[in-house]
Amino acid sequence: MSRVVAIVGGTHRGKSTYIKAHLRNPKGGFRPHIINDIKGEYGKGFKKYHDSGDRDGFIAYVDQNVKNSIVVLEEASFYLSNRHYSSAAEKLLVNKWKSQNTYFIVYHSIRKIPLAVYDYLDYMVLFKTRDLLPNIKNAPPEVLSGFEDVNQKSRSNKHYHKFITLDDI
């Protein structure tokens, strides 16, 4: 099943832990996946791209070789942000149905997500960020509502997150 999921949250909030749990197969081992592990957060057993600093090489590799897998784009602002926007990375999201890949794109902030990327998102897993409401006012209403909820509930649980459906935006 092909999907695009933005996983958004501040440092040490549980984003990588969430991803690792979803890469594991309940029957043992791992689901098919590839990770561009820019910060070295994924240990033994995880399939990592051999040159994590080569953004364009990773995108080309996925485009040409990866099907029916979970693709993790850690530090998505390196690929899809207002400062660094890769049309090749966007093409991966556009062609999700062709590849049957699910993409986990990981951001540290809601404000780093360009508005155009929301067109491709099916879901968002939102952890607490350092965003301020005035800086994210153009985000979809479901995200703004989730932002308020996460900010309140994460006071008592640092790893609290909310799963938000965005596919009807």
Produce the secondary structure layout.
Layout: E1 4-8, H1 15-23, E2 33-36, H2 55-65, E3 70-73, H3 87-94, H4 96-99, E4 102-107, H5 115-118, E5 123-127, H6 141-153, E6 161-165
Structural summary, described in words:
By secondary structure, the chain is an alpha/beta fold. It has a single domain (4-165), classed as Rossmann fold, CATH 3.40.50.300. It has six helices and six strands, in the order E-H-E-H-E-H-H-E-H-E-H-E. It has helices spanning 15-23, 55-65, 87-94, 96-99, 115-118, 141-153; strands at residues 4-8, 33-36, 70-73, 102-107, 123-127, 161-165. Strands 2-3-4-1-5-6 form a six-stranded mixed sheet, sandwiched between helices. Strand 2, helix 2 and strand 3 form a beta-alpha-beta unit. The longest helix is centred in the last third of the chain and has 13 residues, at 141-153. The protein is globular, with a radius of gyration of 15 Å. The model has no long low-confidence stretch (mean pLDDT 91).
